[in-house]
Design a protein that fits this description.
Layout lengths: L1 H7 L12 H29 L9 H11 L14 H33 L1 H14 L8 H7 L4 H26 L3 H9 L4 H38 L6 H9 L4 H29 L1 H5 L1
Helix pairs in contact: 3-11, 4-5, 4-7, 4-9, 4-10, 7-9, 8-9, 9-10, 9-11, 10-11
Length: 285
């Protein structure tokens, strides 16, 4: 008995969690340190051969790029909202949030009603399943042609098309998994069909829906940056990365990638905390 316990007491036991915070922190930093070390070594060796190399910038070149993004648009009348990086972050966040809010509302509404009612299931899901196989990037030329006069709307549509089909399918499948006994109990207690739909089925699937939104944020960022690269604009993280790319401004591109990572982590933490706070019953069961 003791021998079997000793055999199971190691890091490679399936399902075993690491409880030591120190070990978790060390393991979590390993790949970051490895990637950073490889980059610094590559940068160092390249600059030994060519001190003016801009393809793999040094730390000092990256700092110079950061400083450049904090310059004011109008040096004569400094305004916080006119700082390059502030303008780009706010523009990209506005597009991202508008696109995701619309996508989530549509996905939840259509997914919920399609899973609950056979009429909407037969009406919506064949179309959704078929169009979900179309890569959203392939729609960029059409969106550019049809919405070229409204570039902001075009960028938002790209985000919606890139996230809606994945989320609506996920919502549909989660609603289908609601235990029938909960639905029957709701009707037994006198609830109407809409009450069962919104207060039982939607409530039961809400933790999974929030997790689906968390997962959809990654493709949302991809399609946001792709749209800002392709569709005319004057501000945005993707737009400015595309501008400095022509000048080999890798130092600024790396800085903007880091900003995107930080924003993404913060949004993910907010959604995770929201889920834990509003759906404690789900995580405590």
């Amino acid at each position: 008995m003791n021998e079997s316990k000793k055999k199971d007491d190691h890091f490679f036991t399936i399902g075993k969690s690491i409880h030591s915070l120190l070990i978790k922190v060390i393991l979590g930093l390993c790949l970051f340190i490895l990637v950073t070390g490889l980059y610094m070594y590559t940068s160092y060796t390249r600059h030994l051969e060519n001190p003016k190399d801009r393809m793999v910038p040094t730390l000092f070149q990256i700092i110079e790029g950061i400083q450049e993004t904090f310059e004011y648009k109008d040096a004569g009348a400094p305004n916080f909202w006119e700082i390059r990086i502030v303008r780009d972050v706010l523009a990209s966040l506005r597009r991202l949030l508008i696109g995701m809010v619309i996508s989530v509302i549509l996905a939840v509404f259509i997914g919920l009603y399609s899973a609950a009612f056979g009429l909407f299931d037969s009406l919506n899901m064949p179309f959704i399943r078929s169009f979900s196989f179309i890569p959203p990037i392939a729609l960029l030329p059409l969106i550019f042609v049809w919405l070229g006069k409204w570039p902001e709307a075009a960028k938002i549509v790209v985000i919606i098309t890139g996230t809606f089909f994945v989320m609506v399918t996920d919502v549909y499948m989660r609603v289908k998994q609601v235990p029938k006994k909960l639905i029957d109990k709701g009707y037994t207690l006198g609830a109407s069909t809409l009450e069962v739909l919104h207060k039982i089925m939607l409530r039961y699937t809400m933790p999974g829906i929030i997790e689906s939104v968390r997962l959809a944020m990654t493709p949302a960022w991809i399609f946001l940056i792709a749209s800002e690269f392709s569709i005319p604009s004057t501000e945005g993280l993707g737009y400015y990365m595309n501008v400095v790319r022509r000048q080999l401004g890798v130092n600024i591109i790396l800085w903007y990638i880091f900003v995107i990572v930080i924003i993404g982590v913060v949004i993910d933490m907010i959604l995770k905390s929201l889920n834990l706070f509003t759906n404690k019953w789900y995580f405590n069961k």
